[in-house]
Amino acid sequence: MGSLQLDDFVAGWVGGAAGVIVGHPLDTVKTRLQAGQGYGSTFNCVLTVYRNESAAGFFKGMSFPLVSIAVYNSVVFGVFSNTQRFISQHRYGNSNSSPALMDLALASMATGIVSVGIGGPVDLVKIRLQMQTQTFLEADLDLKHRVTGISIKPAYRGPVDCVGTILRQDGLAGLYRGSSAMILRDIPGYCLYFIPYTFLCGWITPDGCLSPSPFSVWIAGGIAGAISWGTATPMDVVKSRLQADGVYFKKYKGVIDCIYQSYQNNGLKVFFRGFTVNAVRGFPMSAAMFLGYELSLKAIRNQAQTNP
C-alpha cells in the first residue's frame, strides 16, 4: 500500500506538468478575460495579447506553474486516490474494490479541501504574473484624471520576487487571497472532475480489459475537464478577480464584495466570462493530465513488478 501511495503522487506530478504545457496559453487568455481588463471577446483578447506581447505573452508566468502545478497536481491525484482506497478498505474490506458514487464524491471533496493549501498560493502567483502588462485601460484602473493606456512598470521581476513582495506587503495571509472562492470552486469542481472521468473510463473501456486504453483515458479526461471547468466558471471568475486584485491596488474586500461589485459594474454575464475558454481549455489540458498520470502510473508499477 505504501509504494502505491508514492506511485500516485509521482504519476500526478507527471500529469500536472503535461497539463500545464498544453493548457497554459488558454489559461492566460482566461485569466485576462476574467480579471476585467476590457478585452471584450475571447477572440479580441487573443489578438490583443498577440499584438502587444507577441506569442511569448501567452506563456507569461509559465515557469512557475510548470514546477508548482506539477507538485500541486501530485497532491491532488495522490490525495484522491489514497482517500478513495481508504474509503473502499473501510466500507468493503478491500482497497481495490470498485468505488460507489458516494465514495468518489467524498474523495473528491476531500481533495478539493486539501488542494487549496498548495493551490491557493500557486494560483495567486501565476495570476499575478499573467496580469502584468505594459498598458491598462482607464476603465479598469478607474483613473479618470489620467491618460488612457498609461504605461506601468511590471510589479514583479519573477515568481520569487512576486512571493517576496506579497509576503512583505500582506504577510502569509496574502498568499491565500481568494482561497475562500477557490474552496467554493474546487469542492464541487473536483466532484465534476473525478466522477465523470471514472464512469466515462469504465463505460468506454471494453469488457475484459484490465485497464483503460490511452484513447479511453484521453477522451474521458478531456470530457471531464470540459465539464468541471465549464461549471466552475462563475466562482473561478470571482477567484481570479480576487487574486489579480492587488497587483497595483486593491478594490475588493472579500468574496461577497467581489461578487457584489462585479455584478453592479458588469451584470450577471460577468460571472460567465471565460466560460468558452474554460470549457475549450479544459478538454486538452485535462486529457493530457489524465493521460500523463495513467501512463506514468502504469510504467512505474510495471517497473516495480519487473524489479521487485
Main attributes?
0% strand; 11 helices; Solute carrier family 25 member 48; membrane; repeat; mitochondrion; mainly alpha; 308 residues; transport; Mitochondrial carrier fold; globular
Structural account:
By secondary structure, the chain is mostly helical. The chain has one domain: Mitochondrial carrier fold, CATH 1.50.40.10. It contains eleven helices and no strands. The protein is globular and about 55 Å long. About 6% of the residues have low confidence.
Q: What name goes with the CATH superfamily?
A: Mitochondrial carrier domain
Number of distinct helices: 11
Low-confidence stretches: 134-151
The global form is: globular
The assigned CATH architecture is: Alpha/alpha barrel
Radius of gyration: 20 Å
The description of the largest β-sheet is:
none
Q: Give me the secondary-structure category.
A: mainly alpha
- Averaging pLDDT over every residue, what do you get? 83
Any chance you could write out the topology, listing elements then pairs?
Blueprint: H1 2-35, H2 42-53, H3 63-92, H4 101-130, H5 138-141, H6 159-170, H7 179-204, H8 214-231, H9 233-244, H10 255-266, H11 275-306
Helix pairs in contact: 1-2, 1-3, 1-11, 3-4, 4-7, 7-8, 7-9, 8-11, 9-10
